[in-house]
Amino acid sequence: MRLLYFSLLFTTMFVHAQKPKEVLNWINTAQSENKNFYFEIPFIYRNDEIVIQVRIGNQTYDYIFDTGGYNNITDAIQEKNNFPILTKQTVGSSNKIKKEINIVKLDSLHIGQLSFHDLAALQMNFDESPTIKCTIDGGLIGASIIKNYVWQIDYPRKKIIVTDQIGKITNLQKAIKVPVTFNNRLMPYIDAKINGKKEKMMFDLGSTTLFSITEKSAKKHDTENAHEIIGGGTEGGNGTIKESIYVLNSGKVEIKNLYYSNKPVYYTSTNNESLIGNPIVKDYIVTLNFKDDEMYFLPIETADEGWMNYGFTLKYDNGKTKIATLLKGSTAEKAGLSVEGIIEEINGKKIDCLDFCECKKSYSILLEGKNEIVLQLNKDGKTQQIRLAKQKIF
């Protein structure tokens, strides 16, 4: 039930003497000397993100492949390389937290054999974004690099094919072709229908939720039957905020001839875009041919209908495992779980993870792997055992 958005969106404040169009032109430009190429790039899938290796200077870093973000580097990479600063800029992450950052000019950046030179990048600090820090030690490969080439994300083989010629991709005959439009920041949008209602949605591979919409869009649907997530919050590139999260039943989702049924659609008051997120790559081999304004979806397997969930998530907090979020009205809440409740054992075993990142991985395996779980709680100094089965929410 974690809601994580990771797209960085420009705000309207500019500093120094640079004009908005000039700054945007820097960010939107990514030049490569490679021509007539076909490269295969391995990736790992970590914390629901596509993570690839990127070389900057003489060091290689883990980067998120993000269609909804900008190219960026961390403060640590900037300190090591001392790239020229083009300007300063105020940016807002998708949960509306704003920060002033540097825009720097990288002399080179390499993704496997694909090379870029004189590349503008945002200099970011992810210290207040714990999930991102568990996922990468670099930054984002974003829209300006992705826009110019063809990228095929093959989840079963954990491989990305990148080429400058769509004809080099050989498995598109049975794929579903979907048209794409772009805003002036090169972010991709596709038309969808959620329960019969039209929705223009950003295709954002930096979002770890399959479907999310704005609060305004949610009002077109049956919000009276929305499920509230207690203790929720959103994490973006500029930090984390606590806020109410709500979940709607999507009914039928249509993206041209691509369909999902009864999937969760998340919304909060800070959502500033409706998004299709990263989990779609588990159901389809996705080919991005953004230079020709199109995408292709080749089915991997039929997606399961509905939403099965334990109704809670876990977090590591100062040496303790606690209940992070709770689905209001779920069997977990009715069984006595509460936000911030302390968990001493899971399935009869003491919890032996020792830090936020290690525990996050352990919790994910526990909550996704089985259909039944036994929790031992410390409630008011007394031990209580609760056995829960996954619940079909809808």
TrEMBL record:
Domain of life assignment: Bacteria
**InterPro entries on file:** PDZ, PDZ_sf, Peptidase_aspartic_dom_sf, Retropepsin-like_bacterial
CDD domains per record: retropepsin_like_bacteria (cd05483)
Task: Tell me the PROSITE patterns matching this sequence.
Answer: PDZ (PS50106)
Coiled-coil spans in chain: none
Which segments constitute the PDZ domain? 297-381
Q: What is the protein name given in its UniProt record?
A: PDZ domain-containing protein
Task: Identify the species of origin.
Answer: Flavobacterium microcysteis
